Amino acid sequence: MSADDGRLQPPPARLLSGEEPIAGSTGTVRDFWAWALSDLRGNTVRPMLAEFLVAQALGATSRPRIEWDAYDIVTPDGIRVEVKSSAYLQAWAQARPSSIRFGGLNGRTWDSTVGYAPSATYNADVYVFALMTARDHASYDPLDLAQWRYWVLPRRIVEATGQRSMALSRVEHLAGAPVSHDGLAEAVCAAAERGGAS
User: Fold this and answer.
1) Is the distance from CB of 98 to CB of 89 less than 8 angstroms?
2) Residue 45: alpha-carbon gap to chain centroid
3) Around Cβ 153, how many Cβ atoms within 10 Å?
4) Sign of the torsion formed by the C-alpha atoms of 131, 184, 82 and 166
5) Residue 56 pLDDT > 80, yes or no?
6) How many whole angstroms from its chain centre is CA 83?
């Protein structure tokens, strides 16, 4: 409990190795992860994988993901990054590949003291749009970095659209050519310099 305001204050989250035992069980944290997160096509798991891949490219995996943060990643240089992901293939049967759209570009921030902000804002310095490009399940491998493409935009450009979501065609028009995983760090730094940081 915090001494100054009487609220229950949790300690900072720590990175787990996966070997931690579940007391009273034969299972481990790794067993839980395998059970809960093995379907990498899922619409809740794929975005987390995309965030991890971007964080890895930016050298920002030393702290655990914070689900309720206003942005997904903070680089070692303090750049706040939001990752939006999409894919042609889903975890269910489809008549055709999905149309690519990236949502949740702005949102109401949340604070444990005051609750939700009154209006939605653009909260990151840089936005990374991550696309899993496979179009058939036989070749689909989200663990193959060659199957991912990334477009990077500074906040000022995303904010200027006033949009909550954007189709891939709009992202391509604004950002130009995609970058590979190896080019992400340079692209994020360049976008921050072009008008992302507040």
Assistant:
1) yes
2) 10
3) 25
4) negative
5) yes
6) 4
**Which has the closest alpha carbon to 80: 109, 101, 112?**
109
pLDDT at 191: 96
For residue 69, give every residue at least 6 positions away whose Cβ sits within 8 Å of its Cβ, in sequence order, or none.
Answer: none
Cα 15 to Cα 36: distance, rounded to the nearest angstrom: 17
State how far the Cα of 13 lies from the Cα of 72, in Å rounded to an integer: 15
Structure tokens at 82: 């939001």
User: What is the helix (H) or strand (E) element at residue 99, kind and residue range?
Assistant: none
| Helical H segments across 83-176, by residue range | 155-161, 168-175
Neighbours of 17 (CB within 10 A): 8
Q: Nearest to residue 189, comparing CAs of 123, 106, 125, 124? A: 125
Given a contact cutoff of 8 angstroms between Cβ atoms, the answer to whether 177 and 153 are in contact is no
Alpha-carbon distance 47 to 57, whole Å?
Answer: 15
Sequence-distant (6+) residues with CB within 8 A of 20 are: 28, 29
Q: Per residue in 135-168, pLDDT tens?
A: 999 999 999 999 999 999 999 999 999 999 999 9
Phi, psi at 23, each rounded to 5°: -55, 135
In tens, the pLDDT along 58-100 reads 999 999 998 888 899 999 999 999 999 999 999 999 999 999 9
